[in-house]
NADH-ubiquinone oxidoreductase chain 2 (Pedioplanis lineoocellata pulchella), 236 residues
Amino acid sequence: HWFFAWIGLELNTLAIIPILAKHHHPRATEAATKYFIIQATASSLILFSSILNAWYTGTWDITQLSIKLATITLTIALTMKLGLAPMHFWLPEVMQGTTLSSALIIATWQKLPPMSLLLMTKHLPTPILLTLAITSTLIGGWSGLNQVHMRKILAFSSIAHLGWTVAILILSQKLALLSLMIYILMTTALFLILISHTTKTFKDMSQLWIKSPALSTSCMFILMALGGLPPLIGFL
C-alpha cells in the first residue's frame, strides 16, 4: 500500500535526523538539514505519484502503478532518495558533514527502503532508468578521482555502484538485489575498519599500515573489490 510505504519512509527520515545532528557542530547540523530537505521533497513526489495513480486507477497497490506520469515522478523521487545522478549533489556533502558511523548508515541502510520500492514497482520507465544509471556510473567514477577524504570517496562510490545496480535492475531483479547486497557488505566492512582507527583521509590510511598491517591490507583489498578488479567479489 503506497500510503503505508510513504509513512514508513517518513518515519525512517525522521529517525535518522537526530543521529546526523547529534554532534552539536555547524557541519553536522547543515548535513542533517540538507538530508531532511531532500528526503522530504522526494517523499512529497512519492505521495503525489501514488495519489495520481489512485485517482486514475482506484487502487493504492504498489504493484499496480501504471500511469505514465506517476511512474516517471516516482522514478525521479526514488532516485533522489538514493542519491543517483543528476540528483546526487546532496550525498557527498551530507556524508562529509557527519561522523563515520552516520555516513555508514546513509551509504548502506538508508538505501534499502527506496531500492525495495524500485524492486516492487512495475512499469518503470526503462529509458529514464538507464539514462540515470549510466549518468551515475560516469559521474560517480569521475568525481571520486580527485578526492582525499574517505567519506566523499565512498559517497561517490555509492553513486557509481547504485548506478550499476539500477542498470542491472532493468535486466534482472534478483541480480540487482545480489549487486546491492555485495555493495552493502563491502562498504560496511570498509567503514568498520575506518571507524575502528578513526581514519578520515588518505593520509590517515598511510598511518593505518603502521598501526595494523592486517587491517590496512584488508582495506586495500576491499577498495580494489569496490573498484571491480578481478578476481575479487566486486568484479561480479
Observations:
- The chain has a mean pLDDT of 87.
- Residues 126 and 170 are 7 Å apart (CA to CA).
